[in-house]
Amino acid sequence: MIDHEHIWHPYSAMNSELPVYEVESANGVHITLKDGRELIDGMSSWWCMIHGYNHPKMNAAIEQQLKKMSHVMFGGLTHQPAIELTKQLLEITPAALQKIFYSDSGSVAVEVAMKMAIQYWHAKGQPEKQRFISLRSAYHGDTFAAMSVSDPDTGMHKLFKDAVAQQIFIKQPISRFNEACHKQDIDELEKTLKKHANEAAALILEPIVQGAGGMWFYSADYLKHAKRVCEKYNILLILDEIATGFGRTGKLFACEHADIAPDIMCIGKALTGGYLSLAATLTTNEVSNTIDHGDPGVFMHGPTFMANPLACTAALTSTKLLLASNWKENIKKIESQLKVGLEICNNFETVNEVRVLGAIGVVEMKQPVDMKSITEAFVNAGVWVRPFGKLVYLMPTFIVSQEELNKLITAVVNTLKQHIK
Ligand SMILES: *Cc1c(COP(=O)(O)O)cnc(C)c1O
Questions:
Q1: 361 in helix, strand or coil?
Q2: Is 240 touching ligand 1 by the criterion CB < 6 Å?
Q3: Which residues, in sequence order, are CB contacts of 6 under 8 Å at separation 6+?
Q4: pTM (two decimals)
Q5: Of 118, 122, 148, 320, which residue is least crowded by CB atoms under 10 Å?
Q6: How far, in Å, from the CA of 215 to the mean position of ligand 1?
């Protein structure tokens, strides 16, 4: 009752009729509801929980840090969890990225990236370069600057039209993953970046996978062209790896599919293995040195919970666990099982298309699904799957067994078969 009367949930109405299930505990790939039912998690709690819930090594590392300190301000102070995490991230992210700014959520990491880009051009004596170029169907978060570079239609531009900055949007690339880049996509990039070279601070992209804006997988070759065209017209490239980072697409970071490095990169979500909220914005020496030499000579951001020690410990432990696992092989196996298992959905009249990449399996419907009935059907089938709009998808934890994944796939197939609307 308290929940229904007083607590907002993501993108929801207070008077919503949609069910909200109370969770008692979670362990491995299982979420246990208050009523005792056990659900296999197909969402990794919004793509974060890559090693599963209640992981003994994660728990132990966090408990140990808790006894030293849960938090300390980062202004004028530093600590081992931040230092060790930084060493680790420098090893696994593109070599050009040498400076790291920690923040508390993905949206804030995107805000920070955008401020870096603006401060960079300001320091270069080109303060007019303040606008951003983004893609249709992009999603970069819910705060104001992040919202401004998210898709104007599926994002919230209508509602907040006069409150968000007007950015520049390129058509969503039609070139699919594993295809060469179509000429029209290249032309669109060239044309837009050339036209806005004098006012654009950066091009911001989700590399390879457009996530919450439509679960679209595009050509690695497109990313290569994006990098090239950015260099040609003196526009920074920001890659938002918040959804794609830490193995989800089959590479540690999705930019590796194209073998490119951005000027600024955002990471979040799976960074802490889903344990705590932490994000980071990484950049090059060129960007940070330029900001240092400009006016006011400091980078103007500093969150209260910057580099929180517990969160940094979770991130370090999660990353080490990932690197020590057979993640590449696991994700290949998950990918082929998703491909084989979801394929049959292509035969359903209500389905537009099935797409699979890495540990992401997407069934795009022709019409938006009915959330109430489909959610209940999934819970009754013993799985936790949360579609949005026309997209029913699976993003399992990396520790999911073949049998558990089979249960998830079967639940999706059977539910969509029965679920006419
Ligand atoms: C989830 C997400 C964000 C926002 O992260 P939050 O932690 O929810 O603020 C930004 N960009 C991408 C690509 C995301 O998937």
A1: strand
A2: yes
A3: none
A4: 0.98
A5: 320
A6: 13
